[in-house]
Model the fold of this input.
Amino acid sequence: MTISIWILGDQLLEFHPAILAAENAAHSEDIRIVMVESDLRIARLPYHRRKLVLLLSAMRHFADDLRDLGHVVDYQRTQDFESGLRNHIAHHAPDRLITMAASEYPTRELQSQLASRLDIAVDVIPNTQFLTGQFDSFPQAASSQKVVMEQFYRAMRRHFSVLIDTQGSPVGGAWNFDKENRKPLKRGIDPPAHVTFQPDPLTLDVMHQVEQHASAIGTAKGFDLAVTRDQALVALDDFITNRLPDFGPYEDAMSSSHDVLFHSVLSPYLNIGLLQPMELIRAAETAYHEGRAPIQSVEGFVRQIIGWREFMYWQYVRQMPDLWTANAWQADRPLPEFFWGGSTELNCLRHVIQRVAETGYSHHIERLMVVCTFCLMAGIDPRQVTEWFLSFYIDAYEWVVLPNVIGMGLNADGGVTATKPYIASGAYINRMSDYCSACRYNPKERVGDNACPFTTLYWNFLSRHEARLRANPRLGP
Ligand code: FAD
Ligand code: SF4
Done:
């Protein structure tokens, strides 16, 4: 029996389960791997060129690494996934195709139809890139039922025994250390630079190709991300050694002079399979047990991975396909033009948008409490906001953008993902950043020429939606 394995571009796993499944079913000389670079997929939206370079270079390096290990790889560059697979089947006539379930809904839909469309036996095996998929005992709540992240997070930590002591209690005596975290960046604290990587000839070639891509945004010039697993492991080690110790206290801080602060910048690699969530968690846990990082930072980081990241994927799976059209606040204003270049007098938004246009990255609080809070309070159409995020960020994929933007950031799913809308006046941004001190607006003023638009929109949102907000037990009187 001859078997072909279709590996998707965001499934660059060191031990790919489809390869293991094929090796259990056939001799290695009867197995081929097919990878497809789809023109339509990379042109679905105007994506950031850094993201395209990351993805295409990582895919091509992955294919080369597989060849070095002795696998036969058919690397197709075609119009779409289906035509790439058709070419492969026409040429090699495999008896069956094995593929791991995609993390994104549209590709999962395609996979479920492949057998009839290609007239071949197809096995779609479970996705192993998320821990939730390996955790069957979590209650399969109906899609409209609210499950709060904290409840989910504690169940995950117990199940995988992460930061749990021998008595079954949380290490450090508490489930969360938020009170010790959430500090603004103190004067004199200078976050260390994060590791970067020189592009090799293969990456330089991709950069050149992507620079010509007419519909993409940003530039490929200066590309310095990891594109192989070995490099991603260096990035992980750099974070654990140099930034994890201060991650917790400053995870919500924003700064006009530092993009990354003490964050990890590991999402681009996690989301394409170069790193696995559990290896990050165990690396952070080990740093704690060896006295290299305090509990408030390690718990804060673990919460992001086994809590928020897994919770978001879980929400995506249970809420799709309805999540794409959710619009609980009936927001219908178009996304302002300045989102494409950052040309605005709102200093916080200008910094964040220009930073993302340049690098494809901003950290969590800037995504949530600057970009999304503004869009929620200003009543911007959720679909337009979502497409903006999908376009601009190097780590953006449907499964993570939809629940974060439509669910958490815009509260447009009726509170299924987050129990309250994340709204705030300029006072919050003033407390957590240095943006306001250099802004022409005053965060304390809500009316008049100098009024901060965040503050005005905040009070306007409260008055427009007073009855509904009062009815929310987390916000009401
Ligand atoms: P760190 O602060 O170092 O956090 C560590 C890791 O935790 C991240 O690498 C990420 O894998 C995970 N994580 C933390 N919070 C979340 C979350 N809410 N959802 C999923 N993973 C989380 N994350 C993406 O990977 N891609 C996106 O396109 C994306 N869009 C977002 C849009 C909005 C509106 C919001 C509020 C959040 C979004 N996030 C997204 C989640 C989070 O902001 C990013 O994962 C994080 O900023 C990536 O930077 P980092 O690796 O330095 O993260
Ligand atoms: Fe942003 Fe308002 Fe602060 Fe200006 S004053 S930086 S608009 S929050």
Remarks:
- The radius of gyration is 23 Å.
- The chain has a mean pLDDT of 94.
- Strands lie at 3-6, 31-38, 73-78, 96-100, 121-125.
- The CA atoms of residues 37 and 77 lie 5 Å apart.
